[in-house]
Amino acid sequence: MANQVSGTVRRIDFEPKSDFLQSRIYAHVFLTVKDTDAEIDMYTEDPMLEAAFLTAWRPLPSPDCVIFPPVIEVHYEERGEIRKAVRVVLDYSKSR
Q1: What confidence tens digit (pLDDT) does each residue in 12-41 have?
Q2: Which of 11, 38, 39, 40 is nearest to 27 (CA)?
Q3: What is the pTM of this model?
Q4: How many domains are there within the chain?
Q5: Among 49, 52, 65, 90, which is disulfide-ready with 44 (CB 3.0 to 4.6 Å)?
Q6: Is 43 in contact with 84 (CB distance < 8 Å)?
């Protein structure tokens, strides 16, 4: 069963991963949990989930600019110490 967290995307790293003769790129996503200062990170190799995370990521162009990043709801599975995203929901109505 998947766990769930809601928050905003703080940072995305694309990192290479090598397994014998195969090399892949996966996304390492850092989230700030909604209504707390807690941070959580997770991984995904799914291009559709990577696109959702990139859509939710909003850099602020200046300190005076007021842009509310969308709240992203992420369902993930824990495999040992690694969290792997399995479902992503973008909800722009909760971004304020």
Answers
A1: 998 888 777 788 888 999 998 888 889 999
A2: 11
A3: 0.76
A4: 1
A5: 49
A6: yes
